[in-house]
């Protein structure tokens, strides 16, 4: 497969045996023989022991592949690590519909992270705030002295903002250090800078610096993605209208928005985990951003274009890195980056946002039409068939029958299995 011929569209990918799926990925991403071996390997204990404390072993998740993604005109196949069935298939289906109208368009802001320094015990907060701002350049110089490599790469501390907050403890100042972290997630760089600034900030303000830590509400590091979903492929304009009615609830009701956004994170987290990134940081940022207007709401927005096709948009913070931490240490995370054919954090964020939108579209499409259980049921039925004692080809036969009868239950599966076996005899 040459670069120009590469496409992420593979019909019936789910029907291929695992070896064939790996072969496709190997060709798509030009993987070496050593890379291919990583698919079958586990994280070695020495690396695991360097990653966290008190290591006992490792914990595996299924690693699947979402196909059909066209993002900013480039073909992508997306590695996804998740325990939840239907998520990978749903993303692939949504991407297939999105590509009819040109796929996803995504863009990302500069990789600016925020570090917070909390300054307390101040006699005059306004004067202290002014003092801090007057010393901005000196403070930024001290911050940048902490990370020469980041500065050489074109990143570093960019700005300083001051907020005065009221609290039951009285007024306090929160100083925000804005840092361009380039291709890192940035927590280490920002936390080191914040800790280094604390003594100087105490001297300048006359107060006491308590917290010095990154904020996960990374609202200066935003990513957006948009896609048009073909109304005919969706089943006509009534389906688009039904979709929009379903979406409306998430935009007005936090109870629904939580589930709606959870569906978005089904996709994003799976990619984030596969690439060795911090899924809790992304989750925290996403949910805090969803509540930025004072009420928790949807991270996506939908409307119709002039031709009645559905337009979907997503915007959220995306603090991801392609260097440092598990992204570097974990061989499968490195392999997943190769599969994605990305080298920058910006591109990873754009892929993440597109996947989140695809996942959300797929969930709402199913919920507005056949319901979510139909998709879930076929894999679930296979698990029930195995639990009932089915073996080999019996599993598929029994699972199909369970779905057909609309009774995916263990008792019924056992009963049916006996019947199937009697028939075969
Ligand atoms: C399930 O993991 C996710 C959904 O509940 C999302 C949604 O309701 O939009 C299906």
Helix content: 40-55%
Strand order, main sheet: write it out: 3-8-10-9
Q: What's the alpha carbon Rg, rounded to whole Å?
A: 25 Å
What summary fits the major beta sheet? 4 strands, antiparallel
Give me the number of helical elements.
18
- Succession of helices and strands: HHHEEHEEHHHEEHEEHHHHEEHHHHHH
What is the approximate shape? globular
Question: Tally of extended strands?
Answer: 10
Structure description:
By secondary structure, the protein is α+β, with helices and mostly antiparallel strands. It has 18 helices and 10 strands. The strands form 3 sheets. A 4-stranded antiparallel sheet has the order 3-8-10-9. A 4-stranded antiparallel sheet has the order 5-6-4-7. Strands 1-2 form a two-stranded antiparallel sheet. Helix 16 (373-387) crosses helix 17 (393-405). The protein is globular and about 90 Å long. The mean pLDDT is 95. The structure holds (R)-mevalonate. (R)-mevalonate binds at residues 84, 259-260, 262-263, 266, 363-364, 367, 372.
